[in-house]
User: Which sequence fits this backbone?
């Protein structure tokens, strides 16, 4: 239970890191969105302020221009009364009218017939000038057409004797109108974050600030047409992000009422480079934050995995140590019992062995019973030897293992250890093939190596039938001495394989079940490991791995 809690605690670390990272990144993302929304709102408000200022200034400019035209009309109208009853060509009027600033005056004396002073207007343009201005209402200033050609502005009025037209130089009025008009206003507004200001309708640009980029035309921009179709002048500006050669722009556009009662579209381009730069920095900060969270999560995950692995290894080591201690206590108790049993059993066994030999040598029996007698004596000797071997294995298990290591040639040591088993294999009609590939020096107890090889190859020979083959080999790889024994016998099922190295577990009818247990102890005493691989019908493979240095890994 303690181990489970500890392992769960390890894995809560990356979970907590991930949860904290998600909280921090979510908060940072919300803060980024709020900041961008605030900056965007400020930019939009800046555009709205410019549009509102433009609308108000346009109205003021229109009022100022109206006053200018009214003053100009009043200036000319004062002379129209005199021209209405006097002869406009009379010499006595010319000097006084010119002193009032008039350069042209005429009175209608018949259909398309006028008499007066025409100033700079040539004869071919006089009739057109009269027709253009007489078409205007009385008192309205006309400064277009022929009048503009000659730099004049004109006012007409009807009298009993006919219509009267008078014109004055428009230079002063034009200069004053330029000072208070929309064009100078747009020039003053540009700057302080405003890239351009445009008043546009379907006919083209009505007024624009200097340094204008190439803007979308009326025919290729349906959003502009939709603004005029909405018929809602006071709606807030709609905004869109555009990219020009001069940089990114947040353009606001909306309906704009002109002084003459018609409508156009007001377009305000606000510099968006600062907004986008801040957005890029915030996005980059958010990306770095996500990267940091990912790295911390991976580090915590790796740390939890390492801690969990260390904990599992520590628990496994403690379990192995406990098992070895338990096994040592078991073997010590077994050794004490074996020593006591051996003391009481070996003397009778020796007596039984000597009696069997004397019976075989001295006792005579009938020819008919001699074969049975020989088999009984042989069985008596073999069973006594078997009991003696069991007692010897008991004593081996109970004694502390003391190794007498020496530096020897691995190939020679293996050949010496395998020699007795090769003799046995030959006598039983079996094959023991030596595959010695190790050409190195190894620090090992030679006698114990012979015991390991004898137990493993002896078990393999027991598992095969006459004619079968056992392969015995060794090599030196990566600082390890690897010894293997393979047979083509019947193999073992997984259940038997899992406990075959435990004491008193055997698959042989006359086995003691102690050989592999002793072998495993000998291998582990050398700092090595014993692994068994087997499957039913596929034989068995035993692999011994011992460090070449003789030290425990």
Assistant:
């Amino acid at each position: 239970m303690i181990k489970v809690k500890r392992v769960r605690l390890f894995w809560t670390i990356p979970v907590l890191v991930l949860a904290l990272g998600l909280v921090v990144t979510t908060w940072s993302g919300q803060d980024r969105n709020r900041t961008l929304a605030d900056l965007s709102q400020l930019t939009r408000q800046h555009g709205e302020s410019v549009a509102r200022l433009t609308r108000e200034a346009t109205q003021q400019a229109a009022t100022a221009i109206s006053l200018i035209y009214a003053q100009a009309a009043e200036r000319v109208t004062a002379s129209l009364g005199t021209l209405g009853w006097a002869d406009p060509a009379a010499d006595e009027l010319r000097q006084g009218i010119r002193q009032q600033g008039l350069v042209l005056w005429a009175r209608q004396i018949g259909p398309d017939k006028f008499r007066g002073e025409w100033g700079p207007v040539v004869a071919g343009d006089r009739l057109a000038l009269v027709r253009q201005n007489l078409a205007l209402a009385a008192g309205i200033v006309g400064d277009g057409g022929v009048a503009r050609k000659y730099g004049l502005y004109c006012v007409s009025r009807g009298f009993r004797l006919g219509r009267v037209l008078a014109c004055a130089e428009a230079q002063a009025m034009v200069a004053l109108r330029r000072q208070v008009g929309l064009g100078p206003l747009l020039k003053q507004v540009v700057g302080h974050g405003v890239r351009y200001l445009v008043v546009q309708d379907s006919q083209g640009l009505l007024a624009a600030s200097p340094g204008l980029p190439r803007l979308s035309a009326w025919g290729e921009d349906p959003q502009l047409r939709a603004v005029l179709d909405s018929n809602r002048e006071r709606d807030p500006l709609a905004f869109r992000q555009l990219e020009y050669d001069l940089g990114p722009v947040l353009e606001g556009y909306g309906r704009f009422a002109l002084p003459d009662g018609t409508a156009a579209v007001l377009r305000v381009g606000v510099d968006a480079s600062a907004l986008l730069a801040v957005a890029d920095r915030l996005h980059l900060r958010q990306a770095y934050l996500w990267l940091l969270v990912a790295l911390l999560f991976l580090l915590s995950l790796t740390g939890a995995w390492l801690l969990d692995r260390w904990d599992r290894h520590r628990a496994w080591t403690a379990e192995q140590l406990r098992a070895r201690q338990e096994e040592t206590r078991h073997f010590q108790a077994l050794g004490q019992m074996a020593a006591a049993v051996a003391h009481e059993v070996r003397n009778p066994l020796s007596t039984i062995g000597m009696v069997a030999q004397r019976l075989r040598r001295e006792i005579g029996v009938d020819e008919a019973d001699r074969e049975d007698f020989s088999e009984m004596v042989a069985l008596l000797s073999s069973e006594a030897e078997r009991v003696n071997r069991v007692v010897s294995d008991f004593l081996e298990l109970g004694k502390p293992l003391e190794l007498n290591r020496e530096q020897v040639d691995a190939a020679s040591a293996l050949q010496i250890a395998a020699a007795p088993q090769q003799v046995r294999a030959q006598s039983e009609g079996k094959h023991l093939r030596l595959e010695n590939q190790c050409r190195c020096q190894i620090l090992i107890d030679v006698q114990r190596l012979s015991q390991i090889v004898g137990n493993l190859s002896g078990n393999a020979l027991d598992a095969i039938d006459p004619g079968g083959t056992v392969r015995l080999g060794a090599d030196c790889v990566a600082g390890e001495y690897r010894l293997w024994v393979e047979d083509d016998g019947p193999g073992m099922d997984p259940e038997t394989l899992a406990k075959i190295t435990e004491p008193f577990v055997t698959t042989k009818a006359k086995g003691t079940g102690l050989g592999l247990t002793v072998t495993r102890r000998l291998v582990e005493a050398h700092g090595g490991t014993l692994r068994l691989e087997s499957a039913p019908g596929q034989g068995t493979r035993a692999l011994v791995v011992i460090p070449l240095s003789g030290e425990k890994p």
Remarks:
- The CA atoms of residues 258 and 264 lie 7 Å apart.
- The chain has 13 helices and 16 strands.
- Residues 327-397 form a domain with the Helix Hairpins fold (CATH 1.10.287).
- The two ends are 30 Å apart (CA to CA).
